[in-house]
Design goal:
nine-stranded antiparallel β-sheet; Split_barrel_FMN-bd; Pyridox_Oxase-rel; single chain; Flavin-nucleotide-binding protein; Pnp Oxidase, Chain A; 7 helices
């Protein structure tokens, strides 16, 4: 029996279509979130007459109570933004309610997706993509503790580029602290869905020599690549720091390797 920690399946997070692609272990769900430069956060602004809102944001996982926790363990998702932005105002209003007794914390859904390849088949209906996606459902808490706020700011900065926080003018000054709001999302439900492998054409098409003779099939790998760092007009540091150049190479190589390896893995289900 596996000892990996997983999110329990429920009607909220269960993968229904092509269910064998679903993953529920913490490590898989968390790795996809952490590898995504941008996550999309959806929430209800509060009134049935208003449209649902989806925002691209930077979100990173961590545990203030257990800083040494790794991606296979329970973690919180931290989001940051301007203190008076819409999502911050909605979260604040939900937390306050009409009074402490009827305060109802904001519930949100967060999605992260990595596309690893274009899967080109014999027929339009069998085309697909190799991908990794995570979806979490969580409850929002406004971070008010100064120490936890600094923890989250470092977590998010280093989550974008490891080592960057300590190589900047820190700590943030009082104006920066006051203008920045941190949201901590407790993950209530989560799942991942992954597609790998070659095209999954139907047997009826594979038997047609005329179609196979004229239609190219295969996979176009897609992976994140980093360009050469370009200096700012006011930069006075002669050499690009090693933590930046190392990250560019190591992460770029890892992204490419995954996209190519995913082609060789068996795919679960059609499309």
């Amino acid at each position: 029996m596996s000892s990996e920690l997983s999110y329990p399946k429920s009607k909220v997070n269960k993968v229904n279509r092509l269910a064998d692609r679903g993953k529920y272990d913490c490590k898989t769900v968390h790795e996809i979130l952490m590898a995504s430069p941008v996550v999309h956060v959806s929430f209800n602004p509060g009134s049935p007459e208003e449209y649902p809102v989806i925002l691209p944001m930077i979100g990173k996982l961590g545990s203030f109570e257990n800083p040494s926790a790794d991606l296979s363990e329970p973690l919180d998702l931290y989001l940051h933004g301007y203190v008076s932005s819409r999502i911050m105002n909605v979260a604040r209003k939900a937390a306050q309610g009409e009074g402490e007794a009827d305060a109802t914390p904001l519930k949100i859904c967060v999605c992260a997706t990595k596309v690893d390849g274009l899967v080109l088949s014999l027929t339009p209906n069998s085309h697909s993509m190799n991908y990794r996606s995570s979806v979490i459902f969580g409850t929002v808490e406004l971070v008010m503790d100064a120490e936890e706020k600094l923890y989250a700011m470092k977590l998010i900065t280093d989550g974008v580029l490891p080592g960057r926080y300590d190589d900047t003018r820190i700590p943030p000054d009082s104006a920066e602290m006051q203008s920045t709001q941190i949201l901590k999302v407790t993950i209530d439900h989560a799942s991942a869905k992954i597609r790998t492998g070659e095209p999954g054409d139907y047997e009826k098409d594979l038997k047609r020599d005329d179609v196979r003779a004229k239609v190219w099939t295969g996979i176009v790998p897609i992976y994140q690549a980093f360009g050469e760092p370009q200096v700012a007009s006011y930069n006075r540091v002669d050499k690009v720091p090693g933590y930046i150049s190392n990250y560019i190479k190591e992460t770029g190589d890892a992204e490419k390797e995954y996209a190519l390896t995913a082609i060789q893995k068996a795919s679960a289900g059609k499309s």
